[in-house]
From TrEMBL:
It comes from Ramlibacter cellulosilyticus. The keyword Transmembrane helix applies. It is found in: Periplasm. This is Cytochrome C oxidase subunit II. SUPFAM superfamilies: Cupredoxins. One of its GO terms (molecular function) is cytochrome-c oxidase activity.
Length: 179
């Protein structure tokens, strides 16, 4: 038998298990189990992948709710594109829209207060990545992801898209203020 010629006994599963082979199978199996339980452990203790509630939605329904909050609580606009900066009351529902290639609007939250952050994508998959905290949530069209957040640090945070979404993916950045 060699790498080129097939073995004379072709039914490989009838060959006795070599000790080295068995050892590697055992190591691989144990490692699979470690990685499997790490998924659960990481979710609970990793602080990066938050638990979200997820509901079905449509772009129309979601943007109507987002627009309502923007109309009510915009305090100023920023940049040449006049992106609204929305400061919703503590404890309320806040909406963030992901679309090619922007996060809208800019949110201004208060430190130590709890908000219900609603996220959806209008078109394709986007990734919500809050920097430098490194909190990551996949944002999927057709679904409304709700995260209960309590900012514990004030400052200016960047929201970057970490799911490749086309030619301007690298420019899909947003901002979040915590006062
Ligand atoms: Cu949106 Cu990448």
């Amino acid at each position: 038998m060699s790498a080129i010629h097939p073995p004379s006994e072709r039914l490989w599963w009838k060959h006795p298990l070599d000790r080295v082979e068995g050892t590697w199978i055992a190591i691989a199996f144990v490692w699979c189990m470690v990685m499997f339980f790490m998924m659960v452990w990481w979710h609970a203790y990793g602080r990066q992948n938050l638990s979200t509630e997820t509901y079905r939605t449509t772009p129309e329904k979601f943007s109507a709710k987002a627009q309502e909050v923007v109309d009510k609580y915009t305090v100023r606009t920023e940049t040449d594109q006049k992106i609204p900066v929305v400061a919703p009351p503590a404890g309320s529902d806040v909406y963030l829209v992901a679309r090619l290639w922007a996060w809208w609007p800019i949110l201004e939250l208060e430190k130590g207060r709890t908000y219900r952050l609603h996220l959806t994508a209008m078109d394709y998959n986007h990734g919500f990545s809050l920097q430098p905290s490194n909190i990551n949530i996949q944002v999927v069209p057709g679904f409304e992801h709700v995260v209960t957040v309590t900012p514990n640090q004030s400052g200016s945070f960047s929201i970057v898209c970490n799911e490749y979404c086309g030619i301007n993916h690298h420019a899909m950045v947003g901002r979040l203020y915590v006062k």
